[in-house]
Write a structure and sequence with these properties.
single chain; alpha+beta; two-stranded antiparallel ribbon; two-stranded antiparallel sheet; 2 helices; 4 strands
């Protein structure tokens, strides 16, 4: 028999949005309520992540706004909205042992 484990989170579980630099590994994390402010460069090595005013910057900043708006809309509803989180390769191999 094979068992499968799935992981879900509710929007209320999302406390912050974090960006990680692919060059140096440094991270910057902001609460969702403050994440609509752009994070354009690495705080450590100053690698440019995105240009000011670009579509990508707007979409990433809008993600935080969408999460906050959805949290408010769902308050008092008779259902919960959950997001499924993909398991990492290390979790999957550990589960199969």
């Amino acid at each position: 028999m094979t068992a499968e484990t799935k992981t879900f989170i509710e929007l209320d579980d999302i406390a912050a949005i974090q960006l990680r630099c692919k060059k140096c590994g440094a991270t910057i994390s902001r609460p969702v309520s403050e994440s609509s402010k752009p994070m354009r460069e690495c705080p450590s090595c100053q690698t440019l992540w995105m240009e000011h005013g670009t579509a990508e910057e707007k979409r990433i900043c809008n993600l935080a706004v969408i999460i906050e708006n959805a949290k408010q809309v769902l308050e008092g509803r008779q259902f919960a909205l959950l997001l499924e989180i993909r398991q990492s390769a290390s979790q999957t191999s550990t589960d199969q042992q």
